[in-house]
Prior knowledge:
The structure is a single chain. The chain is mainly alpha-helical. The protein has one domain. The longest helix is centred in the N-terminal third of the chain and has 19 residues. It starts with a helix and ends in a 5-residue tail after the last helix. The mean pLDDT is 92.
Amino acid sequence: DEASFNLALADALESHRDHYQVADRADDPDAAIDLNVLALACHARRRGWEILVESPYLPRRLLQAAEPF
């Protein structure tokens, strides 16, 4: 459901942040955005779900480009 998805999305983004804060991982090109999480969030938005999570790892402009069906 939508509420559970938003909770899982927040957890996934926190895990991404925590992973890339270690040592020199912040310089990794994958640190800026988790493309897998972004893709899932875009798919949920296209299904009409509201994405309530705010994060620098989930660019709002990219997410808004995924218009509902």
